[in-house]
Amino acid sequence: MSTSSEHEQPMLIDIEHIAKSYVMGEETVHALKDISLKIRKNEYVAIMGPSGSGKSTLMNILGCLDTPTKGSYILNSNVVSEMDDNELAEIRNKEIGFVFQTFNLLPRYSTLKNVELPLVYSGMPSGERKERAENALRAVGLGDRMGHKPNELSGGQRQRVAIARALVNSPSIILADEPTGNLDTRTGDDVMRMFEELWLNGNTIIVVTHEPDIAAHARRVVRVRDGVIESDTINEHPVSAIEKAHEVELSEVAA
Amino acid sequence: MWSQILEGIKIAISAIRSNKLRSGLTSLGVVIGIAFVIFMGWFLQGLDFAFEQAISTLGTDVLYIDKWDWAGRKSWRETMNRPDITLRQCEELTSRMQSAEAASILARKWNATVKSGSDNYTGITVVGANSVYADIAAGVIKTGRFFSPVEDMYSSNVCVVGYDVVKNFFGEGTDPVGKELKIKGVTFTIIGKIEKQGSMFAPPWIDNQIIIPIKSFLNIYSGSNKMMKNISVAIKAGGEENVENAKMEAVGHMRQIRKLQPNQENDFAVNESQAFRDNIANLRLGVWAVGIGLTALSFLVGIIGIMNIMFVSVTERTKEIGIRKALGARRRSILFQFLVEASSLCFLGAIIAFVLCSVVMFAVVRFGEVTFLTPYIPPNLLIIATVVSIVVGVLAGMIPAMRASKLDPVEALRYE
Ligand SMILES: Nc1ncnc2c1ncn2[C@@H]1O[C@H](COP(=O)(O)OP(=O)(O)OP(=O)(O)O)[C@@H](O)[C@H]1O
Ligand SMILES: [Mg+2]
């Protein structure tokens, strides 16, 4: 993927002078102060920053779960900052795939049903829904776990189900908030490899993390501090998660 | 939309199944409410059925010209002072009637003693009538026949007997035709048997009667002077639409026969089987009032119970709601999901009530020998109860479901 071709990609996220504040009784917490950010299609961005810096708040706004107090947000030519609850729900359903730190699978549902869920809300007929969910699960290597409940799976497998669920609607962006936070290094790397594959297939990935090792996989790193963007840089030497996995495999074979 | 409904129902079923005991207890109020609706409807339908049956045994288009009023406001003293209706007057009236289909003289002897061989039974009603009484209110002849005009005219000693008479003298199911009965020492040959007519509202004697020709009747009961104190006339109008006509005609004739002045009131009664309808209306009203009251109360309890459990359910599943919203569920999807869940709880209650009621009804009819009630839930009540349960579910679930649908997705996702 060359730098020049990246610039030809259409603009996906266009945030201008966004602020988000919470009124807590007497005082107002300014979680985000003034953020402007543009992200094109097929970028791989890591959002970093210390705890409480506003990463999750930004993530929620990017993911249309929340609206900014001030500023404008245009996602894939939709003016999100002016949308109501139902329009936001629709745009989340169409444009966003979420991967959460705590997986957020529905415990009573099988993995297949969990993955089908976004399609239920987009009104897809059940036959087609099932087929697409099965394909998504196969794509994350869980073709043999479709009938399992989340509590019958390992953490890494659960996160893969969550990734399948994020993918199943073919969203414009995959948003991951600390996706490896609840996983050990090995399974975390596995998840990152999966994101890299998705990115190579043309998806747009945004990962929130405070771990430099994780951010090292991204091609662009945005640092947030105290509700403002501290830096926004191209990662000159990204670490390929796919190659890293290969090396690990080779060393294991050697050992 | 259909896939949403189906989805909602599936979610509801799995939610109910994961909390079986709680769901069962919650729907108890609804179970009781629905059971009340069913029992009340069942009982009222049975009541109506029995009543209509009773009326039709008396004839829905039959008028009875009598000294006594069956129902109404006349004081006892006033009716006591009325002159008796004599045989002559009856004969006159029956021969004059033109608009009616049939008119028969009718006399009754209550509590008669009847013998057959060495057996003897009291409490039997002996009825004297004309042969046309067969078409008026004699009931359906099951075996044999009614007496003919000739037998009527020559006061033959033949009789037609009711169901219980046969049962008591000869045993249930016996063919009594040809057998003999002794009434006041006079032997009567049985020529016909009337089908069983009795039900809750029918006069209790209806199956315990013996019908004989009016002249034979008078021979036995009025002695040599042929003076039976009071007799009456039964007039079949021929269709309910003719009742008013026949009534006017009969009243006109009777006033002439009695030579009443225009300013004098009728000194006789015109009774209609319809008059009973007023009596039953009050009973119905009573059953309704009590039933509706109890039903409303139990539904209120049911609604509060379900609303409460739905609030618990919404709180417990805040995270789930957050996840669903993040994945694109709109407000109405969530609203719908919880409404379906509440309705399913109520529907569960309805099903439990159906089973319970079915068992009770079967037992009541089977072991209580209540003939006017059906041993199953009438289908229209099933539909009513189902609809009511769903409406109750929607009512009870509305507020909790609205709360769920309005949850902020970020807050909901953060909920542990
Ligand atoms: N609903 C809320 N009400 C009040 N304050 C909030 C709310 N959500 C976030 N904040 C505040 O906004 C600031 C940013 O929070 P945010 O969750 O975005 O941080 P973060 O960068 O994701 O931190 P972490 O790395 O710990 O997850 C914090 O000071 C937090 O207390
Ligand atoms: Mg955070």
General description of the model:
Chain A is α/β, with parallel strands linked by helices. Chain A has a single domain, classed as Rossmann fold. Chain A is built from 9 helices and 10 strands. A 6-stranded mixed beta sheet of chain A has the order 6-7-8-3-9-10, sandwiched between helices. In chain A, strands 2-1-4-5 form a 4-stranded antiparallel beta sheet, covered by helices on one side. The radius of gyration of chain A is 18 Å and the shape is globular. The mean pLDDT of chain A is 92. Chain B is α+β, with helices and mostly antiparallel strands and 416 residues long. Chain B folds into 2 domains: 2-54 and 278-414, no CATH class; 61-272, no CATH class. Chain B has helices at 2-17, 20-26, 28-58, 76-80, 87-96, 133-136, 149-153, 163-170, 214-221, 243-258, 275-316, 318-326, 331-368, 379-405, 409-414, and strands at 62-66, 102-116, 119-129, 141-144, 158-161, 180-183, 186-194, 209-213, 232-236, 269-272. In chain B, strand 6 (180-183) and strand 7 form a beta hairpin. In chain B, helix 1 (2-17) packs across helix 13 (331-368), helix 3 (28-58) packs across helix 13 and helix 3 packs antiparallel against helix 14 (379-405). The mean pLDDT of chain B is 86. At the A-B interface, helix 3 and helix 4 of A face helix 1, helix 12, helix 13 and helix 15 of B. The site of adenosine-5'-triphosphate has 13 residues of chain A, from strand 1, strand 2 and helix 2. Magnesium ion (MG) is lined by residues 55-56 of chain A.
